[in-house]
Amino acid sequence: MSETDNSMSLIVFSNDFDKAMAAFILATGAASSGMSVSIFFTFWGLSLLRKDNFSRPGKSLIEKMFGWMLPKGPSGTGLSKMHFMGAGTGMMKSIMKKKNMTSLEELLSMAQALNVRIVACTTSMEMMGMKKEELIDGIDIGGVATYLAASKNSNINLFI
Amino acid sequence: MSETDNSMSLIVFSNDFDKAMAAFILATGAASSGMSVSIFFTFWGLSLLRKDNFSRPGKSLIEKMFGWMLPKGPSGTGLSKMHFMGAGTGMMKSIMKKKNMTSLEELLSMAQALNVRIVACTTSMEMMGMKKEELIDGIDIGGVATYLAASKNSNINLFI
Amino acid sequence: MSETDNSMSLIVFSNDFDKAMAAFILATGAASSGMSVSIFFTFWGLSLLRKDNFSRPGKSLIEKMFGWMLPKGPSGTGLSKMHFMGAGTGMMKSIMKKKNMTSLEELLSMAQALNVRIVACTTSMEMMGMKKEELIDGIDIGGVATYLAASKNSNINLFI
Fold it and tell me: With an 8 Å Cβ cutoff, is B153 touching chain A?
């Protein structure tokens, strides 16, 4: 039996633009209100943490193919619905800009400034052939044990 | 450190028919068993709360386009898989009818009758250009702070 | 007010290969670390529990159609993204094999060996016209009340 901390742990599995927005709005909102927040990026979600211009030498062909097909960071992501070959996503981003809403890139920086702990999943990194140097700075890497340690006493656990 | 209430907080992000069914079966089941339940409708999920026949004047062209493309209420939604241009979804709905299963529209009314708190996300409303009068009656509106206040002490938090 | 047990309850709604992998990696990781773990398979997730070679007589035409279209067990599932008519999924499986990563089939057996409780959702079974004998051995069946009883005191609740 255990009590819960004042904390939130998110698993971001998806790299959809809209789901990433939801995750970062929740994370920055919770961190601003004094909660300690961790986000675990697994599988497709990992591509949200990729550096914009980085090519690691020595990848296998199949790892290279994954590298080409996955978005590089927040700017390459699309909507989970109505993406319409980019038109729907572009429309959504232009609405957000017009209404002065915070962009996904800004939310990611804001989360890091608010000490949101960002963890890249080691199993997913291995599966997709990604190394730590391909990912943005200031993040941790860890597996399921790291996730369980953080989420076990969290008030709010979500899989996004 | 805090203990948890006897409560459930759901975020409904999707407007897929099947995921909405899952959310309302969980919510009405929990409310029937005496738990206090809140559902936060964000992003695409917001369209589940739209009134059937409502056109708000004064929308921008881009807001009108979103209005046309998004389903109006539960009846306009489709399956997340095997939608098949409506055929799969229609098939599923006809099976449910034949087996006397509760429809999505009925589950929504049942949830309201059981005092499930329904909250429309203000950030998503702004993003999609929706106003409160376009949404069904008897609901609250709120942002991430409203969600955190409700979910912080909930036993069960899910993102659907 | 109640305290939480040392336990995890997952709802597996999806039958995507990647999401199923995530669910079983979390479940086996938690069970290995001494947590008691339950997984509730609902809707599409139910097809992960289907026996490989089983045809139940007496199905209606529409139930047969669902039977044909849904995957039979873990080996028939595909990625949620980049499935590419099977090519993407096959590529992912071959990478996993090359890197000696545990397959989805092995993770399912491992979960059962670690006493992870596997529950098939009765409402979904009814909706899809599936009977208990079509599903793998050693599992429970139950509805929303079974889920609530397990998840109410769980530290970690996720909807996958």
Answer: yes
* Selected residues 29-58 of chain C with any CB under 8 Å from a CB in chain A: 29-30, 33, 35
Question: A3-40: per-residue pLDDT in tens?
Answer: 577 999 999 999 999 999 999 999 999 999 999 999 99
Half-sphere exposure of C11 (CA within 13 A, CB side): 28
ipTM summary value: 0.89
- For chain B, which chains pass the contact test of at least 3 CB pairs under 8 Å? A, C
Residue C119 has pLDDT above 90, yes or no: yes
pTM for this prediction: 0.91
A77 residue type, one letter: T
Here the contacts of C114-117 (C-beta below 8 Å, separation 24 or greater) are C114/C28, C114/C31, C114/C32, C114/C37, C115/C31, C115/C36, C116/C27, C116/C28, C116/C31, C116/C37, C116/C38, C116/C39, C117/C36, C117/C37, C117/C38, C117/C39, C117/C150
**8 A C-beta contact, residue B104 and residue B19:** no
3-state SS class at A120: strand
Rounded distance between C-alpha atoms, residue B159 and residue A39, angstroms? 14
Give per-residue pLDDT as tens, B37-69: 999 999 999 999 998 766 677 777 777 777 777
User: What distances in angstroms separate CA A147 from CA A32, A73, A114, one per listed residue?
Assistant: 22, 22, 20
Give CA–CA dist B135/C91, Å, rounded: 45
Q: How far is CA C62 from CA A52, B119, C30, C59, C101, in A?
A: 49, 37, 39, 8, 38
